[in-house]
Design goal:
Keywords: Cell membrane, Glycoprotein, Membrane, Receptor, Transmembrane, Transmembrane helix. With 467 residues, this protein is α/β, with parallel strands linked by helices. The protein has helices spanning 12-19, 25-37, 65-69, 82-87, 123-161, 167-181, 185-193, 205-210, 214-243, 254-259, 269-280, 283-288, 301-305, 317-320, 323-327, 361-373, 376-399, 416-466, and strands at 2-5, 42-45, 74-78, 89-104, 263-266, 292-294, 311-316, 337-339, 344-353. Among the domains are: 120-245, no CATH class; 422-467. The chain is elongated and about 140 Å long.
């Protein structure tokens, strides 16, 4: 009694004789029927795809074709359809499946710890913050300039009433008035920037007197309220970024996959998944169709390519739970891939029987139902998973010297936070030293200017006294 089975099901009887466990429900059912018929079971692995209907040349797939002439009695996997029922017998469903895609497990993003200081906000937010700082500085500068101009205009008007002999009083008055409004731009910028660093914005009485107007107070109040919300958001996100590792986020839905620039490999594409995508005819399926690259489901290319940057592999779930385990398991028998939570094109397969043997349909249905009702189907499925994981482990050990990924995830202590503290401390010292140098230069420049003003005032006083 011959039967077409899947490519990895040919050794099912041998494994049963060694372990007493079946790797496949279908192989067990075929073996049971052969015992009832007192026949010798011959398993014929088929490496072709399971199609829903005839291909473009009007031919059936490799599972159904031998059933038509009776050269093979059973086909372990066929997809029931209207045309299929007309040429062969079909049993109860044996496998429910759908199309999914898999991708490599996300890996932490390695970057300079200092960059984490700017990660809490996006570039647009940082641009808005910088623009707000500049705008607030210019507004405060304009307010102070208008107050200063209005004050001098009123003072000059008063001085015109006084005769010219009071010139010295005017000069003295000017020197007494100037310090109130002689606030440098760096001081006004400090009023805007210091609250960002949790430093008091107005530290001197002179600066407080200059910015004591209603407009200045209103502007500073609005700026401080804005900084409260920005500061809370920044600090909370910074704690999250420092405490939690940052991972690349691969697409997890077909919509995200269509919007991404990922390379898409696909197994069992022609005659199966391709037809389903064409029949769906949606914006997402139409966007994915030109990008899908067909690959052989027995070849390791599609499965191993998921470890390349921005690459996924698409196919039926049972393929990744079988052949996929062989190529995507590490040396500890842990899965190295993740499966998309969204699946498309729900379908099921059944066992096909040649129409030359109609008496075998009912016994096969009865055997399959007894396995499912007795829980053997789940038990054998778990046993098969362990076999695939063990084979995948052996493959990982062989390839671990070439590809370190097969060694599995290694727990590495994250020392980015201490490095971040050291970098911030070093930069702080550099900035402090630079500011000290600038203040020292500014001190000598102001000292020289004061000396020149004193000499100039002294000479003017002497000229007035001589007159």
């Amino acid at each position: 009694m011959s039967a077409n089975v899947c490519p990895v099901c040919g050794d099912g009887v041998e494994i049963f004789q060694k372990t007493g466990m079946w790797k496949s429900l279908l192989t067990a059912a075929l073996y049971d029927i052969s015992l009832q018929m007192n026949a010798t079971l011959e398993l014929l692995p088929v490496f072709g795809a399971v199609n829903l209907a005839k291909n473009d040349d009007g031919e059936w797939d490799d599972y159904i074709t031998p059933l038509l002439d009776g050269s093979v009695i059973f086909a372990a996997m066929v997809r029931p359809a209207r045309d299929t029922y007309e040429v062969i017998q079909i049993t109860r469903p044996t496998l429910f499946d759908s199309v999914t895609f898999v991708y490599a497990l996300p890996e932490p993003i390695i970057f300079n710890p200092l960059i984490r200081l700017v990660l809490p906000f996006q570039l647009s937010v940082w641009s808005a913050v910088i623009s707000s700082v500049i705008a607030t500085f210019l507004i405060l500068k304009a307010i102070l300039y208008c107050r200063k101009k209005r004050f001098y205009e009123s003072k000059i008007l008063k001085l015109r009433i006084v005769n010219s002999l009071k010139m010295q009083i005017a000069l003295d008055a000017k020197h007494q008035i100037d310090p109130v409004f002689r606030v440098e731009s760096i001081a006004i910028l400090g009023v805007v920037v210091k609250p960002i660093l949790d430093i008091a914005s107005i530290e001197s009485k002179l600066l407080a007197k200059c910015l004591s107007g209603n407009l200045s107070r209103c502007m500073i109040s609005l700026w401080l309220l804005l900084l409260i919300s920005l500061g809370c958001g920044y600090k909370s996100k910074l704690v999250e970024i420092i405490a939690l590792p940052n991972y690349n986020s691969p697409p997890t839905t077909f919509k995200e996959l269509a919007e991404s620039d990922f390379t898409i490999g696909c197994v069992m594409y022609t005659g199966q998944i391709e037809d389903d995508f064409i029949a769906k005819n949606s914006s997402i399926s139409n966007a994915l169709l030109p990008r899908i690259q067909e690959q052989e489901f027995l070849s390791p290319d599609c499965y191993k390519n998921v470890f390349q940057p921005k690459t996924v592999c698409m196919g039926f779930k049972f393929v990744f739970a079988g052949i996929g385990y062989y190529h995507m398991v590490d040396v500890h028998k842990r899965l190295m891939f993740a499966q998309s939570p969204e699946t498309w094109f729900f379908s099921y397969t059944a066992m096909g029987i040649s129409q030359h043997y109609p008496e075998l349909n009912a016994p096969m249905d009865q055997v399959l139902q007894s396995y499912e009702n007795g829980g053997l189907a789940v038990k054998w499925k778990n046993f098969a998973t362990q076999i695939y994981l063990k084979k995948g482990q052996k493959n990982a050990i062989e390839h671990s010297k070439v590809n370190k990924r097969y060694l599995g995830v290694v727990n590495i202590d994250d020392d980015s936070f201490p490095v971040l503290l050291m970098q911030v401390l070093l930069i702080g010292k550099i900035i402090s030293f630079s500011l000290f140098v600038l203040e020292f230069i500014n001190y000598w420049r102001n000292k020289r200017s004061v000396q020149e003003n004193l000499i100039s005032d002294h000479l003017i006083s002497r000229r007035i006294a001589v007159r």
